[in-house]
Design a protein that fits this description.
The chain has 66 residues and is mainly alpha-helical. It is built from five helices and two strands; from the N terminus they run βαααααβ. α2 crosses α3. The longest helix has 11 residues. The chain is globular, with a radius of gyration of 11 Å.
């Protein structure tokens, strides 16, 4: 699953730690999601999209091998 979290963080001037604090996870979790080592739960993905005030579908996209 692709995501544009890193791009959105840059737009909002958030560090991984800032975003992690806003959604209640560790900085390492945000890093793992950004590097596609971890696929977030639906609830976490929706929380992240809500922080950036964009639709979930704009933040996460399925890849052909998903």
């Amino acid at each position: 699953m692709k995501n544009s979290i890193k791009i959105e963080r840059a737009r909002h001037n958030f560090t991984q730690g800032d975003l992690a604090e806003k959604v209640g996870v560790s900085r390492q979790t945000i890093n793992s999601i950004e590097t596609k080592k971890y696929i977030p739960s639906t609830v976490l993905a929706l929380k992240i999209a809500k922080v950036f005030q964009i639709p979930f579908e704009e933040l996460f996209q399925l890849e052909d091998d998903d």
